[in-house]
Design brief:
heterodimer, A: alpha/beta, Rossmann fold, 7-stranded mixed β-sheet, 5-stranded mixed β-sheet, 11 helices, 14 strands, 38% helix, B: alpha/beta, two-stranded antiparallel sheet, 7 strands, oxidoreductase (chain B), THDP-binding (chain B)
């Protein structure tokens, strides 16, 4: 049996391998090493990132390639963009995706525009790694899922892995990609264990994975929501309902074909997205299927998302905020009707 | 400083210390969700500054905000309940430790975004200026935030428009796990005031009487329409960045020295005794009362209910079913 490691360690390994293979790859962020210039550490890292995801990289590659930044997201994100344009291949860590507010101009108006505005004469091989997601009691400013915002911007690629294996392979692809890629890591998945091969491998962007085959209904689930879909699928299977689960893995590029082929087979589509419901990736995929696969549909498309509200702090409210398997099961039952259930 | 003020300051400093000690203890049991950033050891800054503020004055705060809240007059019960995520919390359990706010006492919110407070304080100063109500705004921030763009934008706007805003840096030595000296290309934060043509003052942030003096002058200036001041209070973060932080970036000698030798509460106690502001018995009584008040806050939080489910989608302007 293959070895099992955590989501966090898988991401760490991808960076480690990328930095070994290419000395242009550098890691930038707040406390990605930690303890810079502290005497007794003698250049040993203090943290390895606030979640420990970059642990060991500072010690292995040194502070010239693992660079702690002042708390200045606009400053270092813009610097990462231009470092990428001028010869490096940076991985720039934004501790929480919520901090994107401070760095948005550099991402949206600089990084995402440069290749196009410059007539294709520049490349921006920058990977922005960031954490997202509710469930850690981190409240309104540290729990959002903002991948949809970036998916809306041309000039950016967006990746949301759902498990350790994908995280490693997709991150290696992202780092090697010559365009800017935003890589979203659900902070509540960091401790998730899964089988991950040692060494180098990549997973292409724009290639969805069918996590479970089924004929009755298609569920597209983003990031951690794959787990919610799987839990719902297990409950539904006991009632003879077989759902097909698709993990898009990257939101831009989006594997439209795999989604459309599945909907053609099942005739029904439900999308689970932890982001707030307006203008999110669920509404985007829904619109795409209505546009390109309307004739396949036997029922209206449904979406299970967080409510139109910031993330609440109180634990009981936060649990209600995050999409749940029971809501998915109920929605699926409504969509397929009693007839199918009793067959 | 008179006896009444000395008594207020001693009480507030003890309230903060006791509050943080309780939060630390309870957080370790898992009863408090999320993460907490403690202010114990830095009490003299919040208390020395807020001693000059009224309810109509606003403060902005940081992720390490419990001390500012208490010094500005937030209710201990409501604060503790908020940190527990209870309905009786100051924000009905929806904000938590990093977002405690109470506009009735001029507390414009702790803040989860480093550097988030600068422009907000400028806005509160703008209100006071236009409404001509004599109010001032104080922006508390950590040394980590002094490298953020909002520091420079905020102070420049306040100075350019001559607004009644006082910027108070709490230089506790570390921005998260990074030493001040590494992240900041200036000898001091106060030096940066020169760039905005406003006074910049450094003060011993563990001596509440010195903070009190410096803040008095700055707040007076602001109230008199003489514009902003940048105060840098030198202190030390005796806790980690967050509870659970390994604090590997701290030296053993600093870890031993600061909470004991440079304890701001012990310093003020000695001062109050020496200057006959408070007697030993009075100090002991205030200490006891503070302990009791904080214990009651914990009880209150324990026994409060969690928010109703409907609260999830309340206060969002627009609802979609």
């Amino acid at each position: 049996m293959a070895r099992k490691i955590t989501f966090s360690k898988a991401i760490n390994e991808a960076m480690d391998i990328a930095m070994e293979r290419d000395n242009k790859v550098i890691l930038i962020g707040e406390d990605v090493a930690g303890g810079a210039t502290v005497d007794h550490l003698q250049d040993e890292e203090a943290w390895g990132g606030v979640f420990g995801v970059t642990k060991g990289l500072g010690n292995k590659f040194g502070r010239k390639r693992v660079i702690d930044m002042p708390i200045a997201e606009a400053g270092y994100m813009g610097a990462s963009v231009a470092a990428a344009v001028t010869g490096l291949r940076p991985i720039s860590e934004l501790m929480f995706n919520d901090f994107i507010g401070s760095a948005m101009d550099e991402i949206m108006n600089q990084g995402a525009k440069i290749r196009y505005m410059f007539g294709g004469k520049a490349e921006v091989p920058l990977t922005i790694r960031t954490s997202h997601g509710a469930g850690a009691g981190a409240a309104a400013q540290h729990s959002q899922s903002l991948y949809g915002m970036l998916t809306a911007i041309p000039g950016l690629k967006v990746v949301v892995p759902s498990n350790p294996y994908d995280a490693k392979g997709l991150l290696l692809t992202a780092i090697e990609d010559n365009d800017m890629v935003a890589f979203f890591e659900d902070k509540t998945l960091y401790s998730m264990k899964g089988e991950v091969p040692e060494g180098y491998y990549t997973i292409p962007l724009g290639k969805a994975e069918i996590k479970r085959a089924g004929d009755d209904l298609t569920i597209v689930a983003i990031g951690k929501m794959v787990q919610v879909a799987e839990s719902a699928a297990n409950q539904l299977a006991k009632q003879n309902v077989e759902v097909e689960i698709i993990d898009p893995r990257s939101l831009s590029p989006l594997d439209e074909d795999t989604i459309l082929q599945s909907v053609e087979k099942t005739g029904r589509l439900l999308i689970i997205d932890e982001a707030n419901p307006r203008c999110n990736v669920a509404t985007d995929i829904s619109a795409m299927v209505v546009d390109k696969g309307f004739d396949f549909l036997d029922a209206p498309i449904k979406m299970v998302t967080a409510p139109h509200a910031p993330t609440p702090f109180a634990t009981n409210l936060e649990q209600l905020y995050i999409p749940r398997a029971e809501t998915v099961v109920r929605t699926v039952k409504d969509m397929i009707g009693e007839l199918t259930l009793s067959r | 400083m008179d006896k009444k003020m000395a008594s207020w300051m001693f009480t507030k400093m003890n309230d903060i210390r006791n509050f943080e000690n309780q939060v630390q203890k309870i957080f370790a049991t898992g009863e408090i969700p999320g993460f907490v950033h403690l202010y114990a050891g830095e009490e003299a800054v919040a208390v020395g500054v807020c001693a000059h503020l009224e309810n109509l004055d606003y403060i902005t705060s940081t992720h390490r905000g419990h001390g500012h809240c208490i010094a500005k007059g937030c209710d201990l019960n409501g604060m503790m309940a908020e940190i527990f995520g209870k309905e009786t919390g100051l924000c009905n359990g929806k904000g938590g430790s990093m977002h405690i706010a109470d506009l009735e006492v001029g507390m414009l919110g702790a803040n989860g975004i480093v550097g988030g407070g600068f422009p907000l304080a400028v806005g509160a100063g703008l209100s006071a200026d236009i409404l001509e109500n004599g109010g001032v705004a104080v922006c508390f921030f950590g040394d980590g935030a002094n490298n953020h763009g909002t520091f420079h934008e905020g102070i420049n706007i306040a100075a350019a428009l001559n607004l009644p805003v006082v910027f108070v840096a709490e230089n506790n030595g570390f921005g998260e796990a990074t030493p001040f000296e590494y992240a900041t290309s200036a000898k001091t934060i106060a030096d940066r005031a020169i760039a905005y043509d406003i006074p910049g003052v450094r003060v011993d942030g563990n001596d509440v009487t010195k903070v009190y003096e410096v803040a008095e002058e700055a707040i007076e200036r602001a109230r008199n329409g003489e514009g902003p001041t940048l105060i840098e209070a030198i202190t030390y973060r005796t806790s980690g960045h967050f509870e659970g932080d390994n604090q590997a970036y701290k030296s053993e000698s600093d870890k031993e020295k600061w909470p004991v030798e440079v304890d701001c509460i012990e310093q003020f106690k000695a001062y109050a005794l020496e200057n006959k502001l408070l007697s030993k018995t009075e100090l002991e009584e205030l200490e006891k009362a503070s302990l009791k008040a904080v214990e009651e806050a914990v009880e209150f939080a324990h026994h409060s209910k969690v928010p109703n489910e409907e609260a999830l989608t309340e206060n969002v302007y627009v609802s979609y079913k």
